[in-house]
Amino acid sequence: MTSTENDAEGTAVPAPVSVGTDRSGPAVVALGGGHGLAATLRAARSYARSITGVVSVGDDGGSSGRLRAEFGVAPPGDVRRCISALATTDTLLARSLEYRFEQGVLTGHPVGNLLLAGLTMMSGHFQEAIDELCRAVGAVGSIYPATMVPVQLLADSDQGTLVGQVTIERASGIRNLRFDPIDPPVADCASRAVREADQVVIGPGSLFTSVLAAAVVPGIRAALQESTGQRVFVANVANEKGMARGFGLAEHVDALADHGVKIDVVVADSSAPPATGVSPTVVRADVAAGDGWGHDPAKLGRVLHQVHLERR
User: Whole-prediction pTM value?
Assistant: First the structure.
């Protein structure tokens, strides 16, 4: 799973899922980007009493990259997916967020990206644009960018320093992910949500350009370290094609640790190969979608809920 928008995707928005009605359920924060974070947010709707998404804004490819380069706005694509995942209204607007233009100068742009870009330019604030679109589609939760400004992802590899999300995503042997600016500002609401969450779900998604791109932001990482909530890493169902080629579960967990991201529990699909040397508790369960690539939100929600209950 990647946070870029180069891959073709359908325009249909999945049917809304009712938010959890058990007021004793956990306050859940999901960290990451791309399709993986959207799946986690859909999963949380089945059991959480409150939901917050903290989304990477390091994307520089596809529609997001074009809007970022042309207008100087934060890349909207991953945020758009999260808003779609939390939408409750069955309006034309909610259904249109994922519609992608197929011809003309707007080819490749989803409607939701253009709306977020336009609202940002009108208001001058990306968060205000997010909040407005969330209200318009009845989103059952809060969405915050992981940083208050767009960031450039940097990483080291055997070929030297890599710059940019797309470049990193296509490489292998990646290590030492960091940001330009080095310590980007984080909204108080985002860091507080992480610190106070009952459960923080990290992933699934591309290890460096989605998962770590949110979790390693210094302000977010500090909040994670201070959190007394349960920190769950959701491993990918299928291994990635580029940057983490050859990475198994143990290597993913090691990369999180190398970047100062502490986790308590790992959720892995039952089809994943056995992992040795993984210190956090590993919960194996059937969480795969029918395509064998992504996660089924209903299955993942049941497992995450059970993982939370067993901690209490």
Answer: 0.90
